[in-house]
Specification:
The protein is of the alpha+beta class and 176 residues long. It has helices at 14-27, 43-55, 90-96, 112-126, 141-149, and strands at 4-7, 66-73, 77-85, 99-103, 131-137, 153-160, 163-171. The two termini are 17 Å apart.
């Protein structure tokens, strides 16, 4: 597999990022993690919003701080994005979890999801998260396999807003 690195969003990869988002739009899929849905027309503003999401204390209990990273292949191509929430609130403990990740449609089924989750678990540990909650729709077999390959342990299943959700816990301790 090519050299894969997690980086914080930067103007350096603006063109590649927009290309990835446009690919998702053509595929007509919901973009995950949620930060991919931010308006990128003013790219600098979008990056500043991501920094604010990471650093500015939330103004209410509905919000939590989170850090966003892009998975870069050979320091030239954005292949995916991941967001790690610094803590859970009631909603995230039920459905969203600590980590949301996505791989651009043309790069799926190549092991990138396993790698992005592996790398962000190290970031989660740096944030003081010893066990990360990761959720997925029950019918998303690929995501469930990705979570299991990273040490995920199925905790529970539930129906939330009419969708069957699986909740997995992954230890961030002893990750290399």
């Amino acid at each position: 597999m090519s050299n894969l690195t997690l980086i914080e969003p930067t103007k350096q990869f603006q063109e590649q990022y927009i290309e990835m988002i446009e690919e998702w739009k053509v595929a007509e899929e919901k973009m995950v993690p949620f930060v991919l849905r931010y308006d990128y027309e003013n790219f600098d503003s979008m990056v500043n919003e991501l920094i604010k999401l990471r650093d500015t204390p939330p103004y209410d209990e509905q919000k939590v701080n989170s850090s966003t990273f892009w998975l870069i292949q050979d320091m030239s191509r954005v292949v995916g994005a991941v967001n790690v929430r610094h803590r859970l609130n009631k909603y995230l403990a039920e459905i969203g979890g600590h980590i949301g990740y996505g791989i651009r449609p043309s790069e799926r089924r190549k092991g990138y999801a396993v790698e992005i989750l592996k790398q962000v678990l190290l970031k989660a540990r740096e944030l003081g998260i010893s066990e990360a909650l990761v959720t997925c729709d029950k019918d998303n077999i690929g995501s469930a396999k990705t979570i299991l390959k990273n040490g995920g342990v199925l905790d529970s299943e539930a129906i939330v807003n009419g969708i069957e959700i699986q909740r997995y816990w992954i230890s961030t301790v002893n990750k290399v």
